[in-house]
Amino acid sequence: MKRAWLFAFVALFASHAMATDVVDLASSPTTARIGLQQVTRAVATETAQDGVQQRRYTFQPSAQPQITIAPAQGAWNWSGQGELHLRVQNAMPWAVTLVVDIDGRDAKQQLHAVVGLPAGPAQTLVIPLHVTSPLAFGMQVGPAKPFEDGGRRVLLATTVAGGLDRSGVRDVRLSMPAPQAAQSILFGKFEVVAGEAALRDAYTDIVDRYGQYTREAWPEKIADDAALRAAVKRAPPAASAAGVDRYGGRLDVRLRATGWFHTQKADGRWWLVTPGGHGFFSLGVNTVKADDTRTYVQGRASMFRDLPPDSGTWAAFYGNADNRNAQQGAGAGRCCDHGQWFDFYAANLYRVDGRDWLAAWRMRALARLKAWGFNTVANWSDPALGALHQLPYTRELDIRGDFGNVATGYDWWGRMPDPFDPRFAQAADAAAAKAAQGVRDDPWLLGYFADNELSWSAYGPQGRWALAVGTLHGEARSAAKQAFIADLRKRYGTPDKLAAAWGITLASWDALDATDFPAPEPNEAHPAIADDYSAWLSRYAAQFFRTVAEAIHSHDPHHLYLGSRFAVSTPEAIAACARYCDVMSFNVYADVPQHGYDAALAKKLDRPVLITEFHFGSDDRGPFGKGVVSVANEEQRGAAYARYLQAAVGDPDIVGAHWFEYADEPVTGRLLDGENSHFGLVGITDIPFAGFVEAVRKANASLRH
């Protein structure tokens, strides 16, 4: 009984229709082996509600308790089979994690899946017998909850990694990652079947005519046009303007008036200041626009139920796009990233307001934002909203052009622009001229952002140096690379001195010109590497921020440069931003802002900080994704918002926080990268999530007191 593995024998049933191997984990005959490691097996079986016999297996607290299921002899031949089906029921009152590994003849042959088993009735867990993910269906997150399929409850492992020669399957392992207490799961029949019916069915007819997920219900879900109109047109509570100036600045915080938004530090606290001279904490919402929820339908027609025709009235809500980008990590590997799209959100707005739907939506969106306590129309929003002069707004520089770039390995939205390339300065100037057109003399404009979530660093312990390494890896024609080499030549004089300092072989300066030059990683034995890389990162960032700042101020001397919305960063980049930007902006996805960026460095640099993206999502309102920071359910979103906002307001360096974003993403993924999460203030139907927005309203209102 003290052995690590205990073997009991269970039946290997004869093949039945479409099945080649069947093992019943509830019984105990002789032609397959079950090994138990830190797992106990109940003596008696239990009868489920549907009359099926199951047996309880309890995973004990340990590093990785597991069950191993193997043939009595040799290996299984699953050639031609498409799915593994396993009868399973979580016996706990909470969700548990089950890891499924299917092992081939050697260590390189393995399929790996991680599944969240919800509490509730028994279901059939389906593991596709090949590598797959929701990206194969054009979205970032797939339908990972049980659904009814042919009278049975099915739970699909939407992501399977690895690789497997199905002709030689050594075993299947069911494990749980480091449970802190005993966790029980009931198992029944295990079998492999031909085809991929369950995988196909999981993605079939999942979106209704309104863009809603078809297999769940929630309070804001609607069934007909009348309910849609009634819910959307329900008036929000009246907005309160007490205690604030026309721009939303606090009348009790009197500061210097310049006629434009600016920054000022008073009594140890940084403020944005309204044109009238009052302290302003920017409460904003990103992407308040009616055309950001489009989703590809081409190649995925089976996912959509009752799509309107792409002719007549509905033709206006169809279009074509192409989001293929080999240099962009976001959405890489997904199918259905080009072709025809449909806009469910705009179509729903048309159902509500008819031909004048866009104008009606704009007025409704502004009324809602003010009623919910927001005072800023933040980045990527409809420009017409700012022009209505009901709320302050921001503008973004979209710096595009035929200039060089540097790969860092992160490259989520693409490679880093090369600010040493003269064409970058030209592109920045053109972008600033375009952004300032018609708004440079508008006092309602808060300021400009330039680019978003650039690849200043990469992940991992050496990620800080990725931009320096990437620069040296570039081609000889790279302007950044030549600038870096020039710096090194000036510092060391001769290549042998550089070689000695870095611990490398370097025959000549020309050797640095080689594409994919093997730049060394910093190490303790050669501290000069980190010093030189740090100096280069500082120069690179200074070149970028100085170039953009000059472009902005040449076309608009009045308004703020709000930074470039850091997601990943380095101390060098942050310091350069502080030098050239009026505000340092960070997209901070964390429980509180101070846990998501280098707040100590920001304080040392003594510059105001704007939190330009944050959110909390859940998966109980249709879209499958929970966002970057998730909570258990919709109710918890409001509490998380209030906690985050209080932490932001309590920090004297933070001058605002902007929620991402106004509307939920499509169930089947947005055009840009297939992202499909629920973190909106409103759904794809434009119906507000009542409980959440009320919690947001209360949290925002509390800041006035």
Automatic annotation (TrEMBL):
InterPro entries: GH, Glyco_hydro_42_N. It holds the Pfam family Glyco_hydro_42. Residues 1-19 form the signal peptide. Keywords: Glycosidase, Hydrolase, Signal. Transmembrane segments: none annotated. Residues 479-591 form the Glycoside hydrolase family 42 N-terminal domain. GO terms for molecular function: beta-galactosidase activity. Its EC number is 3.2.1.23. This is Beta-galactosidase. It comes from Rhodanobacter humi. The lineage of its organism: Bacteria, Pseudomonadati, Pseudomonadota, Gammaproteobacteria, Lysobacterales.
